[in-house]
Amino acid sequence: MEMHGYKMPDDLYYEENHFWVKEEGDLLVMGMDDFAQVMAGEIVYVQLPDEGKRLKAGKKFAKIESGKWLGKVFAPVNGELVAVNEELETNPGLINDDCYGNGWLYKIKPDERGELDNLIRGQEAVEKWLVADIEKYAKEE
Amino acid sequence: MEAKYDFERKYRDQILKCSRCGFCQAVCPLFGATLRPAYNARGKMLILKEVMDGKIELNDELIETMFQCTTCAICTENCPSGVEVPEIIKLVRKDMVNIGSCHPAFKGMNEVLKKHTNIYAEDELEDFERERNKKAEYVYFIGCVGSYREDEATLETLDLLDRLKVDYTLIDEVCCSGVLEDVGYQINEDLVRKNIDIILATGAKTVITGCPYCSRTFNNKPQYDELKDKGIMVIHISQFLKDFDFGVKTEKRVTYHDPCDLGRHCGIYEEPREIIRKIAPDFVEMPHNRVDALCCGAGGGVRGGYPKNSLAMARRRLQEAEEIGAEVVLTECNSCVHNLSNAKLRKQKFGIYNISQFINELMED
């Protein structure tokens, strides 16, 4: 759904650094949300770690770069990285073009699905968080 | 007809000397990656002749052509007429900025360096777990890429200097700002002053740089002459490390990528190789090495302004590493490490490191 000029689908979970998460069978899929891809500008590089990498919730496990920004990707839950979007290796701009679809980043096998409850979800919570970050980044600029 | 632009005043004869032979096109990394003749030196000289003849204008339509060049100088090395292409391009860019035609990334960079200490507008300085601004024999000057994009590599280099018991200090460094001169602007005198003052305050007589571009800036830009005048030498880390014995070896097949800023621009080819031969019995050259080395694609502002083409050039370079069966690609330039690492495909299993970083990892093992 549209929220203050950004597409923020309300059926997704959101990690506070602006990564979305959704369930896909036993796995979780994550990507960058619309606010982040707009702020970042054209994405030029996405780090694609090897499958099997252990992920620790809240810990950085990859990097994303645009022309002006280096971002860290934080694991939303404890688990194992089981797949990466290999299209992004030569076409990282997919994140800008279709951040919720073809621009997905990683698939994770979570240790505990219950950890999703630690993420931001629901229109009210998402809007409050988004507005705060819009103001924060506006001040920084 | 009186010359309208500085580039014509200074380089008219050179531009007219271009015989359009195309030797430059055969070696240009940008042409190799894009097959666009206008990006290559011959194409640029043809366009500039048209500008000098008043047939086309220097304006926004020429931004993509004139601001897309890594200034790697392989064209000049191969030019039978001796045309100094990078110098001409840099002055054309200044002329274009003067008339208000500039790539937004570079205009942005100039603005960033008026308000921030580095090209990335990062405000949090990585402390690398080390005190800064101490009195010491050496200053280790990291550079923007090493500080903010390849901090892990930098940490390994610093660990190596500690293992070798080098008496050095980090400083509250700011961007050397030499890059601004390449993209149409002027070196930032405030930043220059800050760097000179902090270096002098340490009492160090030698500055070791992790970045060959910073080394070139300190040594060649008149704004940094005060360092020379006060007897302070500036060297690149490969020059500093060449006489050390490390006591480690790797069995892996190793190759070396010559950074343009260290190789073609400074003539430093052998020092890094002397170091590598001490630690890697299986050292193999890539087909294009030393003065013929292929550019990684990051220089001249291209990584910031034209990242896709920048990474395409890096991929061409890495193909050579793959062809010779390299397991390790060494270089000694954080910009090269950054661009090559970003360009490396998952199926390419070699590692890419600065020499100093790699040696530290061997010593850790």
Describe this structure in words.
- The complex is a heterodimer of chains A (141) and B (365).
- By secondary structure, chain A is an alpha+beta fold.
- Chain A has one domain: RNA polymerase II/Efflux pump adaptor protein, barrel-sandwich hybrid domain (OB fold (Dihydrolipoamide Acetyltransferase, E2P), Beta Barrel).
- Chain A is 21% helix and 34% strand.
- Chain A has helices spanning 34-40, 94-97, 123-140, and strands at 2-3, 6-7, 13-15, 19-24, 27-32, 43-46, 54-55, 60-66, 70-74, 79-84, 106-110.
- Chain A starts with a strand and ends with a helix.
- Chain B is an alpha/beta fold.
- Chain B has three domains: 6-102, Fumarate Reductase Iron-sulfur Protein, Chain B, domain 2 (Orthogonal Bundle), CATH 1.10.1060; 138-241, Rossmann fold (3-Layer(aba) Sandwich), CATH 3.40.50; 254-364, Rossmann fold, CATH 3.40.50.
- Chain B is 48% helix and 7% strand.
- A four-stranded parallel β-sheet of chain B has the order 2-1-3-4. Chain B has a three-stranded parallel β-sheet with strand order 5-6-7, with helices on both faces.
- In chain B, helix 19 links the parallel strand 6 and strand 7 (351-354).
- The longest helix of chain B has 17 residues, at 307-323.
- Chain B is globular, with a radius of gyration of 20 Å.
- At the A-B interface, loops of A face helix 18 of B.
User: What radius of gyration of chain B results from the CA coordinates?
Assistant: 20 Å
- CATH hierarchy, class of chain A: Mainly Beta
Distance between the termini of chain B: 68 Å
Based on CA inertia axes, which overall geometry of chain A fits?
Answer: globular
